[in-house]
Amino acid sequence: LAEIISTTTDDKLNDLFTKSNVYIKNYNDTALINTPISKAINLDYELKEVSKSAPEKDISEGSSKDQMLYIYTSGTTGMPKAAIMSQSRAIYMAMGAQHLAGIFEHDVVYTPLPLYHTAGGILGVSSVLLGGSTCVIRSKFSASNYWNDCLKYECTVAQYIGEMCRYCLASPPSEADKTHQVRLIMGNGLRPQIWTDFVTRFNIKQVAEFYGATEGNANMMNTANKVGAVGFIPFIGEPFYPVTLIRVDPDTNEPIRGKNNLCIKCKVGEPGLLVGKIRKTTENSFSGYVEKSASEKKIIKDVFSKGDKVFNSGDVLIRDEYNFYYFKDRTGDTFRWKGENVSTSEVEAAISNIVKLKDCIVYGVEIPHTEGKAGMVSIVDESNDLDLDKLSAGINKSLPAYARPLFLRIVKTPVSLTGTFKMKKNDVQNDGFDLTKVAGDPLYFNEGRKFVPLTQELHDSIVNGAKRL
């Protein structure tokens, strides 16, 4: 930025900073004092005034393990928690992502993500601070302007997270969809059900989909364009990067242990809880949260040997024969119905495709006199154009019987999103199918071939066990 200031002060630059609300003060041109670029600081000028004296000898020396900052988790399933980010952790995370994805000094990185989360504040901005590239920052994500911004600022790399890709895919086609220069998109949350459609429509040559948690040590990235994979760990790297899947009870979310009271590793194709071994000698190990009790909840002890510890990611993944990993669900979101495990993320993706990529949330609800939880879906329908017959037919065609939601709630107002563009389930999940709690939103019951209004009489027959499910 300082280099640009010292060499360019033409109308084009003036216009650029006027539109982007960035202000520059140029000490060499008095004509610019009252212009929109007169309120920032010229680093070239200011650095000349910095003292050249050596610092005091007793100044404390920093350590790579020193706390750099706190980053609050997104709060998808509960209250946000302050995760500790050390100096080394931030650097390893940033440089690792840049090298794996292939982001270079000549790249222009587009970041419409909040900078108070890891993806934008560490992975995005670090492309400038540590990699020397250029970063274009948008204060708030806009699906309609995403590709227009990339085209305008000649971006070559673009970031995404959560539901952003689905929102972009649902937006009307534009000329910028294919005339931009973006060669690489990097982020997490690109669902396999829309992956191919997304890269085809927007002409993306490479996707760097990653899996990670701000506080975790089980992070990975898929740089091979493997559709649906969130990461890859070479077999040769397993001893140096001990990340694996263990069997977990879907009802209690607790690890399943063998006769020796140790955890059991999952086989290829078997869903399991992702864990990362905690080694204090490793700079990038689990740092935890500010609140120690919250940190303890994320640690599993005596996993593969007596006394060892692992970080509990809270996520269920699947590994294929080539060691690509695929996200399946959050441990707290998966539920059992009719003796089968139901993945809410898979059902959400299927229903979202049926209803033209509208926001939808799937969760389990308890019904008296029945085992497990029945599926329920809340669909946001602000335009009031949801076709229930088409929805029912699509669900019956694309989902097995046990995974088909029994209840439907039509929400007229947008669902609350976290800062990382993930939908919050707590509010609608707590309401369930209780007619007194869902006042104002239409509720329906899945009769098999169609959704029918959930009347008080029908509701009572379900709760009393008179209605056959």
Automatic annotation (TrEMBL):
Q: Name one Pfam family in it.
A: AMP-binding_C
Please state every residue range assigned to the domain named AMP-binding enzyme C-terminal: 346-422
Q: Which Gene3D superfamilies match?
A: 3.30.300.30, N-terminal domain of ligase-like (3.40.50.12780)
Listed GO MF terms: ATP binding; long-chain fatty acid transmembrane transporter activity; long-chain fatty acid-CoA ligase activity
Q: Does the keyword Lipid metabolism apply?
A: yes
Q: Does the keyword Translocase apply?
A: no
Assigned EC number: 6.2.1.3
Q: Name the reaction it catalyses.
A: a very long-chain fatty acid + ATP + CoA = a very long-chain fatty acyl-CoA + AMP + diphosphate; tetracosanoate + ATP + CoA = tetracosanoyl-CoA + AMP + diphosphate
The record's section on PANTHER family has: FATTY ACID TRANSPORT PROTEIN 3, ISOFORM A, LONG-CHAIN FATTY ACID TRANSPORT PROTEIN
Protein name in the entry: long-chain-fatty-acid--CoA ligase
Q: Which organism is it from?
A: Aphis craccivora
